[in-house]
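Troubleshooting entry. The earlier prediction with 2-amino-3-ketobutyric acid gave an output that would not parse, so I re-checked the input for stray whitespace and re-submitted. Clean input:
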Amino acid sequence: MSEKILVLGSNGQIGTELVTALRKSYGENNVVACDIRRPDYDIKESGPFEFVNVLEKDTLNTIFAKYKPTQVYLLAALLSATGEQNPKLAWDLNMNGLLNILDLAISYKTAKVYWPSSIAVFGPNSPKDNTPQYCVMDPNTVYGISKLAGERWCEYYFQKYGLDVRSIRYPGLISWKAAPGGGTTDYAIHIFHDALLKGSYASFLNASTELPMMYMDDAIRGTIELMDAEASKISIRSSYNFTGVSFTPEILAAEIRKHIPEFKLTYTENDPRQHIANSWPRSIDDSYAMKDWGWKPEFNLSKLTEDMLKNLKK
Ligand code: AKB
């Protein structure tokens, strides 16, 4: 049977690259990009696009009836920093968007659903180093709370209805193709743009704030590998710990200086995102992903820095 794939939230940082990768594997017409905004590319020149708000059940129902998707990727969400500016909207979008998709996936017998979680599910009392898959989780952002609740719903739908839902707890994702969407880890993208444009960057996180990160190429490959894995290999139906490399703004700046020696890093004070970052892990133990479906990152700090600068210079 040929696949028909819906990607909801297709214009975001992840969706932009995921749609391209999926279209390469499954064919342009079999991957339907869906978003509330018009994409940057010319719709007529590319594969199918639909305007969809994941909170509008009737529109969603029409789209499911039209395409009868075999796989759905739900990426539409409000991230950690923007979520704090509008907690009720973040909860509504992140939670009810997910429940709408889980219910429609059951009604339309969608074979597989992908939904991203985040390191934001951890909180101030979670272990900070090599944070294990199973530990205390006390998120203190509405984004983290919605992701933790969403993980429980995913596992519930798997156990109660047999829905094949798969999920990854993304760390900060670093990419150059699309702008990041209002997260706490966004400094690690802005720093590259400003290093090239101005030779300096004012970081909203302090010098020693270490966070888990990953290059987008690894994240897209890992996501598709998880979705392609045999169902029998997936032992976790909440969400998998997943990581690439951990670093601080200071360490990242030192790496950038290997290419731009005059690069200057300064720090702003009292940014609310510092408080969020302080509650998150410094590094992640992703051994379940490695053991269950063979996860292995390819980009370390020097490789991702080189690739970011090379592509942003173009
Ligand atoms: C954020 O910073 O909110 C996201 C995330 C880690 O989920 N990048």
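This one parsed fine. Residues 87-107 form the longest helix (21 residues).
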